[in-house]
Design brief:
The chain has 243 residues and is of the alpha/beta class. Helix content is 44%, strand content 25%. The two termini are 31 Å apart. It has 10 helices and 7 strands. The structure holds S-adenosylmethionine (SAM). S-adenosylmethionine is lined by residues 28, 32, 39, 43, 77-79, 82-83, 104-106, 109, 124-126, 153-155, 158-159.
């Protein structure tokens, strides 16, 4: 269920990534391997309790709007599952039967997810459908092909190709499903590319609407009433909702 780095390189080749992209993705993995054990504390440090609660409540409110008794969720680049488990708990408190899967590229994050009882799927956000096929075939799991909700928190600015990630998300979203992205707003702190392995310096609401509109018919982007604190740097968050 949890691949070694050599297996990952093989999977990445099988998924059609070229040498340069494989190296960039392996760099991301190496960085996040070092974060996995502490990831929950890191999130708590970035976002104070009230911000975490606001984010979880906001995501759950969006999910409840689908008005379903059973819901299949995929959390893309779920990390240690900090938000995944909180969203699942809240939905279950609201008596929604919730089937949650979490996809991530970093093996130690998958271990953390597994320990929390969240079904982990090794995979790449740019190729979700194909990653699920590989995981199902290779590890004999039976992850669904489509989901009612595809969620992603604090990860969009890490993706090498955000346009491709949205296309990839669409390929596993049910016809009447919904995508919820929560991430950092555009900022000017170049140093975060080095210290936090950020690929993009966040996105403005205009940018996120533009990227979303290339793939989805209904696109909404809003400021969230929360902020993320990294040392002395304070960055706002947005929510993108696509269908
Ligand atoms: C900043 S963490 C966010 C984790 C989690 N969503 C959270 O809110 O705490 C970014 C996660 O994205 C994963 N990641 C980065 N690039 C990825 C990709 N292309 N495909 C899948 N996962 C990726 C990393 O392994 C890491 O766990």
């Amino acid at each position: 269920m949890i691949p070694s780095i050599d297996e990952i390189k093989e999977f990445l080749k099988k998924l059609g990534f070229d040498e340069k992209s494989i190296n960039e993705l392996v760099e991301q993995i190496e960085y996040f391997e070092t974060e996995a054990l502490e990831r929950d504390d890191i999130v708590r440090d970035y976002l104070k309790d009230e911000c975490i609660e606001t984010i979880v409540n906001d995501i759950v409110r969006e999910i409840l709007k689908l008005n379903r008794e059973n819901i299949k969720i995929l959390d893309v680049a779920a990390g240690s599952g900090f938000f995944t488990e909180r969203v699942r708990r809240k939905l279950e408190e609201s008596r929604v039967k919730t089937d949650v899967y979490a996809l991530d590229i970093t093996p130690s994050m998958l271990k953390r997810l597994n320990e929390k009882g969240i079904a982990p799927i090794w995979g790449v956000a740019e190729k979700i459908k194909e990653s699920i096929e590989i995981a199902n075939e290779h590890y004999g799991i039976n992850a669904p092909k489509e989901f009612n909700i595809v969620l992603s928190t604090l990860a969009f600015h890490h993706f090498l190709n955000p346009d491709r990630v949205l296309e990839s998300i669409k390929s596993v979203l049910k016809e009447d499903g919904k995508v919820i992205i929560v991430d950092v707003l555009k900022h000017e702190h170049e140093e975060l590319k080095e210290t936090l392995k950020d690929t993009h310096l966040g996105f403005s609401l205009e940018e996120i609407k533009k990227i979303g509109s290339k793939v989805f018919k209904n696109v909404r982007a809003e400021y969230m009433d929360v902020y993320c604190e990294v040392g002395d740097i304070i960055v706002g968050l947005y929510k993108g909702v696509f269908a």
